[in-house]
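Customer ticket, subject: "Can you confirm the structure for Polyprenal reductase?"

Message body: Hello, I'm evaluating your service for our small team and ran a test protein. I'd like someone to confirm that this is what the system normally returns, since I don't have a reference to compare against.
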Amino acid sequence: MDVIAHIDKALEAAQMDAVDILRTFFLLAAATTVSISLPSSLRDRFLPYGPRATKTATAPAPAPAPSDDAAASCRPDAQASEPSPAPRHASRSGILDYLATWQVPHSYFTQFYITSVASSIFWAAQLVWRGRIFHAIASRVSEEHSQQSMALTQVLICWILLAIQGSRRLWESFIFAKPSTSKMSIAHWLLGLGFYLAAGVAIWIEGSGAIQTSRLTLADFQFTNAPSIRTLVCVPLFLIASGFQHDCHHFLFSLKKYTLPDHPLFRGIVCPHYGAECIIYLSLTYLAAPPGQVVNKTMLSCLIFVVVNLGLTAQNTKAWYMQKFGREAVQDRWLMIPYLF
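Agent reply: Thanks for trying us out. I re-ran your input and got the following:
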């Protein structure tokens, strides 16, 4: 209870609520990822993973050959001298090299989607029966955010779509799995788990006002009312992007070895499956918008993290393609979405 009281005092002092905390988490995660990508000393060690990761990213620099002065100091008549201190930058490099060895198998990506599906199931139970954890979060949503609430049907549709996304990716991670010795940074793994846990809350938190004042019944699953224009646009957009992404993943799995993809979706785009992921979250961002608002701002912050994270990975992929297959092979290709990025 003391911990909860301290959290409430901190939120009150910062004039923030649970919605603000979620938005801040996504934006800070995006800013941190960008910060790591700027200096090469961090980018080369912590961002690449899977086939893009190279041993040189974390391998310590070879020891320099002894100079003439060093060789002379080994002679019996050489005067003893105090060893010169190691350069400060070398010490920092050694620490970064050590941190870069904190890795987990690349196959741990499956845990992201296990977390996503488990989160969807957990929150379904919490929302239907208004469980303690739901109440603990919803009671810390400000009155302003509660009044500008998504409709109950909106929450239900968005939850279903996010559950579909997580379930499909989990299924793909099993059927498209190949033996691999690739690694990824433990920081990348922890950030991914945090993202999927936060996304499971973000999809409904701006509808907490409606959830608390309305009882979810079987009638809410009938969708007897005519869908809104927003639903008619965003749901098909979500499904089409999901289909494109699945097709890309299936094609990559079908490659006998890691070669330059020649699938139609890849011919003008380096990572079309990343672009599809962005469109999936874009559709949820518009679909979850409370009445009177253009977008759901919590899901927008979630989308920003997705775009930043995948955009940086796409840049690394393009650089890796150039190194492996030649600059001319991919230099004219867009990273994720044609004519935009």
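A couple of notes from the result: The two ends are 48 Å apart (CA to CA). Residues 297-325 form the longest helix (29 residues). Feel free to reply with more questions.
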